[in-house]
Amino acid sequence: MFEYFVSSNSKKSVPAYNSQPMAKKNAKKSKNSSASIARNKRATFDYKFEEKMEAGLSLMGWEVKSIRMGKVNLSESYVFMRDGEAFLFGCTIAPLNTASTHVVCDPMRSRKLLLKRKELDKLQGLVDRKGYSIVPISMYWQKGAWVKIEIGLGKGKKEHDKRDDTKDREWQIEKARTMKKAVQQ
What we know:
Mean pLDDT: 79
Low-confidence stretches: 25-33
Largest sheet: 7 strands, antiparallel
Number of helices: 4
Strand content: 25-35%
């Protein structure tokens, strides 16, 4: 496997140059524990989602740098359809002072969602005919380089539905506490 040569001056055998492959630099990259960038917690409280899908985002360079620094807010954002295309509106990406000196930044601009034609037609049909809403749920990194957004197709909850969900969630917490105390005794 390795080539050795013996030098005339010494009796030791030394491996020849280029006989071993070079070690890769940064062979083990430190993976981020979570690929999540931002979550829209309010959306899961206000809407009942029947279907979720993943979409890409068309971003500018300064936006990607700001997203890497975590300067994103999805709380008041929504998706609308125009001319057979989907756009994310209301998502605030705060510009960095150092990254956006040469370009005019609009933190609230509409960003195009990258979806297949079949998915766009399905969304358009459900929004027009059945009155569904399209709401962004979370933004995350995929494969470390691509920003993806998870959108939910659903209907708004009524006030009594929200109360029922809160009651169920509190009951689950109380039940878990009771079970934990019973196991400890």
